[in-house]
Amino acid sequence: MSTWANLGLQDSASPLMEQLIFFHDHALLILVMITVLVGYLMFMLFFNSYINRFLLHGQLIEMIWTILPAIILLFIALPSLRLLYLLDEINEPSVTLKSIGHQWYWSYEYSDFNNIEFDSYMIPTNELAIDGFRLLDVDNRVVLPMNSQIRILVTAADVIHSWTIPALGVKVDGTPGRLNQTNFFINRPGLFYGQCSEICGANHSFMPIVIESVPVNYFIKW
Ligand code: CUA
């Protein structure tokens, strides 16, 4: 989870989030190079002494500074598309979790695992345990097996919500009347925190998500 002064991304807990971090760093590097180059050129313009009186056009440089940005954009667009399709790929999921957004809590259904159904509410600050996380801990966690492909179906019962877990690289909108699908693979045990990321009403900040990632044999006994 994110703690004080963490302005970057959280440590990844899934292979897809790892790829998202690599892509973020790659895009940021290109951005920094462009900013430095353009910043340098703009700074040097202040010292222009207008010595080329008969300079009216430059075909070659115009060609270069038109085509070059297009090529640079390709270096961002192609890895971005690769990731986009990778995120959408579903590879034989072993568990399917359905999460339904409500004002203001999540309810979960494990339709192919003992037909478990439960609601998951935020623990109010005055009822919080001494080691609990304010506005982040819930009464019933989502227990999921690690090292398995998990499919998640997201929908909502009233308004649009968004099921978002930064460490897993998952953000899916829950829209009333629709069923959205994505998948993830948790590669370590632990607790992963998330929040609703779609402005859904007055208590939008108070519908967190907690995933409890456990080894598969623990999950089967659960
Ligand atoms: Cu549900 Cu914001």
TrEMBL record:
It catalyses: 4 Fe(II)-[cytochrome c] + O2 + 8 H(+)(in) = 4 Fe(III)-[cytochrome c] + 2 H2O + 4 H(+)(out). Its cofactor is Cu cation. Keywords: Copper, Electron transport, Magnesium, Membrane, Metal-binding, Mitochondrion, Mitochondrion inner membrane, Respiratory chain, Translocase, Transmembrane, Transmembrane helix, Transport. CDD domains: CcO_II_C. The chain crosses the membrane at residues 27-51, 63-87. Residues 1-91 form the Cytochrome oxidase subunit II transmembrane region profile domain. GO terms for biological process: ATP synthesis coupled electron transport. One of its GO terms (cellular component) is mitochondrial inner membrane. Pfam families: COX2, COX2_TM. Binds a copper A center. It comes from the Eukaryota. One of its GO terms (molecular function) is copper ion binding. Belongs to the cytochrome c oxidase subunit 2 family. Component of the cytochrome c oxidase, the last enzyme in the mitochondrial electron transport chain which drives oxidative phosphorylation. The respiratory chain contains 3 multisubunit complexes succinate dehydrogenase (complex II, CII), ubiquinol-cytochrome c oxidoreductase (cytochrome b-c1 complex, complex III, CIII) and cytochrome c oxidase (complex IV, CIV), that cooperate to transfer electrons derived from NADH and succinate to molecular oxygen, creating an electrochemical gradient over the inner membrane that drives transmembrane transport and the ATP synthase. NCBIfam families: CoxB. Component of the cytochrome c oxidase (complex IV, CIV), a multisubunit enzyme composed of a catalytic core of 3 subunits and several supernumerary subunits. The complex exists as a monomer or a dimer and forms supercomplexes (SCs) in the inner mitochondrial membrane with ubiquinol-cytochrome c oxidoreductase (cytochrome b-c1 complex, complex III, CIII). This is Cytochrome c oxidase subunit 2. It comes from Drosophila paulistorum. The gene is COII.
